[in-house]
Amino acid sequence: MFVNILVKGKILVKVLIDTTSKYNTISKHLFNKLESNHGLEGIVGDDLIGEEIKGLDLQFRIKRKWQSLGDTELIDFQIYKNPSFDQVLGQDWLWMCEAKINFGHSPKTCVRHAKIVIDGMSIPLIEENSNKASSSKNNLSHSETEIDKPDLNLEKFIDMFKKLSIETNLFSSDSESTGSDWYDLDLKKP
Known about the structure:
Layout: E1 2-7, E2 11-17, E3 25-27, H1 28-34, E4 41-42, E5 48-54, E6 58-62, E7 65-68, E8 76-80, E9 87-89, H2 91-96, E10 100-106, E11 111-118, E12 121-124, H3 144-148, H4 153-178
Parallel strand pairs: 2-9, 3-8
Antiparallel strand pairs: 1-2, 1-6, 3-9, 4-5, 5-8, 6-7, 10-11, 11-12
């Protein structure tokens, strides 16, 4: 599960929310972009740099505005050299924020949704293949206009629907001119 966040009010990142990860992690690459120490403490591990960040400000897009959550000074991030993602929010973060993950489906609209609810605020999750923000394999730099751009999924869906509608109308008018009904074709006939 992924969510777009704004780190330190300026760096847009696609963050992995991993319920199986005990710790929160941050890549050395993203840490270097922060240009501050954030209360580093020493720790040791295989891929660990040997430091931990405290008090990192994370902002989530809620109702078209970037908002910080409280108590971020209590949440630690371990710095890794070569992680799969620039940032991972694990069990530690989920527990501290008392987060609730909600997967839903609307039978009326056949739309699925996933969100995290923290202190009554609903933060939508994004699809795994979405490229709106970066993992460590992507570029981290984004302009302010990209950050403030609303989600284009609905717009893309409407464009796709319009194209389908136009194609269907064209196909329908072709079938009318030949006198056949395209939706009643019997595939067994030659």
